[in-house]
Write a structure and sequence with these properties.
The protein is mostly helical. The chain is built from ten helices and no strands. Helix content is about 70%, strand content about 0%.
């Protein structure tokens, strides 16, 4: 006999939508954070194009501007108080975060920040790179190192999710991360306009009403 009460596992596309929706409603209330994500998304999209002809410049732009602006929004502008929209504490949201919560981000950003010093002290980076002989060579090796760090960070959390949740969740999260620049560019394109109107926090009315964020923004801008 079939158990009709068994919960059906969401498809890959459905879970991708859920992860994107949860990421927006839980972690992007600040209009400043949203606007910085728009800047980050623009830079990351530029990086994607630059990777084909100038990987070094893409890596430097990606980490120095795109990643930094993205994390500044989360660390300094996103509210850490009780989330009345989703009825959740900051601690609870940090605990259920699928990807990198603030503590994991601190570790990742710390590794990134110290990597130039390690490369300067050990130009071959423990035998993995051809030692640089000038400033240009140092920047090229640093770019390679930062691209490697991005790949490793993505793989570590993806595989970790395989074990603590399931393979699909890990693959969905990796897909979400790689496509976030496209999604964020569309989702937060109007955020600077709300910010210029003095709206520091997204009222998130669309979350309460289950409404598409783009439709809600259109209504708010028209009012």
């Amino acid at each position: 006999m079939t158990n009709s009460s068994k919960v059906e596992k969401p498809s890959f596309r459905e879970e991708l939508h859920m992860q994107r929706w949860d990421d927006h409603r839980y972690y992007h209330h600040s209009r400043i954070n949203q606007s910085l994500h728009l800047l980050s998304a623009t830079c990351f999209l530029t990086c994607y194009a630059m990777l084909w002809f100038d990987a070094a410049a893409a890596a430097l732009l990606g980490w120095l501007v795109a990643m930094c602006s993205r994390q500044i929004g989360h660390f300094f502008f996103e509210p850490k108080t009780y989330d009345t929209v989703n009825h959740a504490t900051h601690a609870h949201k940090e605990e259920i975060k699928v990807g990198y919560n603030l503590q994991r981000k601190r570790i990742l950003q710390g590794v990134w920040a110290i990597s130039p010093l390690v490369l300067y002290i050990n130009p071959s980076f423990f035998g993995l790179l051809t030692p640089h002989t000038n400033s240009a060579g140092f920047l090229d090796n640093l770019a390679i190192l930062w691209i490697g760090l991005a790949v490793v960070a993505l793989l570590i959390r993806t595989v970790h999710l395989f074990f603590i949740q399931n393979v699909q969740t890990g693959l969905v999260w990796a897909t979400k991360i790689l496509t976030d620049p496209f999604h964020d560019f569309k989702l937060y394109a109007k955020s600077p306009f709300f910010l210029m109107r003095g709206e520091l926090l997204d009222p998130m009315l669309h979350v309460a009403h289950g409404q598409d964020n783009e439709d809600a923004d259109e209504e708010a801008l028209a009012s």
